[in-house]
Amino acid sequence: MILGWIKVSHAATMVMLFNAALPAHAWEFTPTPICTLSHTEGAASVELTYDHSTALYSISVTTPQGWPSAPAFSIRFDGPQPGLISTARHQIVGDTISVSDSGFGNVLDGLEFNSSATAFTETTTVTVLLDGAAEPVARFRDCTDAPIA
Predict the structure, then answer these.
(1) How do residues 45-97 score in pLDDT, each as one tens digit?
(2) Per the CB 3.0–4.6 Å rule, which of 56, 70, 96, 102 could disulfide with 62?
(3) Tens-place pLDDT, residues 119-137
């Protein structure tokens, strides 16, 4: 019996250590210094911000392979409320593609009410899952609606 417990205990310890080494896949919200919603999954990191001082929203998607120059950047939302948004006003700096605008309702709706988001250009595609995004997106919305103190 003792050997059986040791094997289970050792196996459980190995599983815990393995899981601790994996990156977090949760959608995270932080209200300071600016409203920020972030998520890292596989080979992509997504970050949305809202800065009360400029009244601008931004979304950035970073991948290790980067984003080659492209005439348009799009995000497709798949799930119960599918949608597609596109822009030619994006910027590429290093491995990150980003867009800023004064309104992001369609982006927030897409993240909150769907199951996946695919960011893409004509040559690069990255898909992230939206499991667990609804509550942090709601907190992000509350932060952006909050008056400046």
Answers:
(1) 999 999 999 999 999 999 999 999 999 999 999 999 999 999 999 999 999 99
(2) 96
(3) 999 999 999 999 999 999 9
88 Cβ neighbours under 8 A, 6+ residues apart: 71, 72, 73
Residue 55 has φ and ψ, to the nearest 5°, of: 60, 35
Determine the Cα–Cα distance for residues 118 and 96; give it in Å rounded to an integer.
15
CB count within 10 Å of CB 92 equals 15
Residues 6+ away with beta carbon under 8 Å from 124 = 63, 65, 66, 67, 68, 70
Q: Which residues contact 139 (CB under 8 A, 6 or more apart)?
A: 29, 31
| Assigned token pair, 131 | 């499991």
- What lies within 8 Å, CB to CB, of 6 at 6+ separation is none
Across the chain, the runs of DSSP E, i.e. the strands, are 28-30, 35-41, 44-51, 56-62, 73-78, 83-87, 91-93, 96-101, 116-120, 125-129
Q: How many CB atoms neighbour CB 111 within 10 A?
A: 25
**Res 146: pLDDT:** 78
